Amino acid sequence: MVxxxxxxxxxxxxxxLFAALTAILSKIGVEGVNSNVATMIRTTVVLLFxxxxxxxxxxxxxxxxxxxxxxxxxxxxxxxxxxSWLCYNRALQLGPVSKVAPVDKLSVVFVIVxxxxxxxxxxxxxxxxxxxxxxxxxxxxxx
Length: 143
Description:
Shape: globular
Low-confidence stretches: none
Structural class: mainly alpha
Radius of gyration: 18 Å
Number of strands: 0
Strand content: under 5%
Number of helices: 7
Largest sheet: none
Distance between the termini: 41 Å
Number of domains: 2
Order of helices and strands: HHHHHHH
């Protein structure tokens, strides 16, 4: 039985599985389509899906009760997500998914570095070694 403190791991594994499916399904979907159009379709589906989930449980007015800081940073995060998806779909059009996906996962290394500088999170030798292994794996798989 997974406790509340370990439930993040199940969701993280779910995220990894769905990200893998996203890569395969997107590679098939962007064939012969402008990558920006593909991104628009994906984004629209995500918006509708998330809206259904949120508005089944919460009132639409609760969305507008967020603090300005929360709204600003979620907006910036959304813009970063959009830019990521635009780049990812274009990369999938131009390259094999077996090489694009590992390079995309260098985001883990970038997150570790940015979390230290932007959030002041501590790192230890395991984190540094893990980040180096991820980076090395991405390079090996991409070449």
